[in-house]
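Private note to self, pasted from the team thread so I don't lose it. Backbone tokens:
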């Protein structure tokens, strides 16, 4: 690994100032993604800005009115094991639990996971289905962006130069919202997903109220299947309707061909997973 300068700011404001002033600098927290890029020679920054010593940047809090606030330096494992996340957002806790292995989950941060913009990731699909937002801080101040707008493409986000993702914001789930996240891997269970599906719904008497379906790890960014949500609303999850939604999900994604399969194969997997997720919601209800 090539030599680089390491700077350890004590606040997010200081970190943003350093990143703004030093053109070839990069923030690092868990390092599970960035260090691999550096070792492979894909990206060689001259300066790394270590965020780990910033206090209170990993807090996980919940308010019944404002919802969940997760500090960007909270690890994936801290999110999956958080009592408030397990109680109010069990589908999110599960999506974090199936990320890689326990060693990675203990090091990787939720802020880094989102800011890296890797399309082959589990949490973003569930977070998008939950209408999450991210808090971004730069020298110009603080702004909030919907996660659906933040994740622009493969390894591409709405972060401006010198900005940091400082928190994840998840609104309180509507009463009765149920959810499920399922994924498919082509190799070991620790492998990155070939495809993942997050499905959330409010069912009353078998009739859908609010339905959200997001496909992750296939297209350059997670894809929310808006038409499928419209088809479900006010209808019963019959086998015919589920099949129509599954076909729609497979149709609208734009699969990236990689080691985990060609585009046609991934479309087929998306249809299968969408069908399974909706069938499970209709059968068992799940929990958001």
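Design output:
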């Amino acid at each position: 690994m090539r030599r680089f300068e390491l700077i350890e700011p004590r606040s997010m404001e200081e970190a943003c100032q350093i990143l703004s002033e030093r053109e070839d600098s990069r923030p690092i927290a868990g390092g599970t993604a960035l260090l691999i890029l550096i070792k492979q020679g894909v990206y060689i920054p001259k300066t790394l800005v270590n965020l780990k010593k910033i206090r209170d940047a990993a807090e996980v809090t919940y308010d019944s009115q404002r919802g969940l606030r997760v500090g960007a330096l909270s690890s994936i494992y801290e999110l999956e094991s958080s009592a408030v996340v397990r109680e109010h957002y069990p589908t999110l806790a599960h999506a974090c639990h199936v990320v890689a292995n326990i060693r990675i989950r203990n090091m990787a941060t939720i802020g880094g996971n989102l800011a890296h913009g890797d399309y082959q990731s589990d949490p973003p699909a569930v977070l998008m289905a939950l209408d999450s937002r991210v808090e971004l801080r730069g020298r110009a101040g603080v702004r909030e962006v919907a996660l659906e707008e933040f994740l622009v493409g493969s390894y591409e986000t709405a972060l401006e130069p010198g900005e940091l993702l400082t928190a994840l914001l998840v609104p309180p789930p509507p009463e009765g919202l149920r959810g499920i996240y399922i994924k498919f891997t082509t190799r070991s269970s620790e492998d990155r997903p070939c495809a993942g599906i997050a499905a959330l719904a409010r069912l009353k008497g078998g009739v859908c109220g609010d339905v959200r379906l997001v496909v992750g790890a296939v297209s350059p960014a997670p894809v929310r299947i808006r038409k499928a949500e419209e088809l479900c609303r006010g209808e019963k999850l019959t086998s015919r309707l589920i099949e129509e939604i599954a076909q729609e999900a497979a149709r609208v994604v734009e699969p990236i061909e990689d080691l985990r399969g060609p585009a046609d194969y991934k479309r087929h997997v998306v249809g299968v997973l969408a069908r399974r997720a909706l069938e499970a919601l209709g059968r068992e209800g799940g929990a958001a």
